[in-house]
Amino acid sequence: MPAEPPSPADAPAPTPALPRRTLRGRIFRGLRRCVRVLLYFLVLFVLVILVGLIPVNNGFQPTEDGVEITVTSTEIHADFVLPMRNETVDWSKHLLPGDFTGDVSGATRVAFGWGNKEFYMDTRTWANLKAGAVFRAMFWPSPTCMHVFLWDDNIAFPNSRKTKISHEQYRRLVEYIQGTFRRDESGRFMCVKGRGYATNDAFYEAHGSYHVLNTCNCWVGQGLKVAGVQTGWFTPLPKTVSLYMPAAR
User: Fold this and answer.
1) What are the phi and psi torsion angles at 128 (to 5°)?
2) pTM summary value
3) What's the rounded Cα separation, in Å, for the pair 213 and 210?
4) What is the mean predicted confidence (pLDDT) over 108-127?
5) Apex 163 CA angle, 159 and 168, nearest 5
6) Is 205 helix (H, G, I), strand (E, B) or coil?
């Protein structure tokens, strides 16, 4: 005889249907996580900047008969501007005339700026600014270069601060800057030919890796700390570099 079908009481309970995750829902949840992580990072970065405003070298006093140094700041970038030559260093022996496309024999001052190599070389003006280059520069540790401008005394530098430091302090600053340059087998600075913005500037290969916690402004701030000049403990933003820097007396 055929088996009797199971009674409804003996039948297994149906498995409840699981909610289906749509592609749009997964994308939304992923974006929400990304935004949350970004907000956490921004809050942490702001806190680090606020802590970085704590000054170091609080006992610094300008040296009356010392060497005048200048720190210039734009909206995003800071540079050192130093004498072209004095008893400590003659920069023309390191920055050779052939590195520049114009006549720089009359230069009396030299500006040094360190930064992300791709961003520096490919962003001559704001019109050349690319979102991808900015993102890589800030969030992906990347190669660097040194940008050098040669000036004469007729050039005025807006948004700048000046002070005078002793010759010993200046020697330490010079060693810090020279140590950032990469050198070839002969000990010469390694110029990147044909990449300058004008006839009186040039790019050089540099040591170091650029990222959001090690910016061009951090490099200038570190140089000030090495030289004993009062500055912020952490200076990723341009205006924080010379926040405590006194004017020359």
Assistant:
1) -90, 0
2) 0.79
3) 8
4) 81
5) 140
6) strand
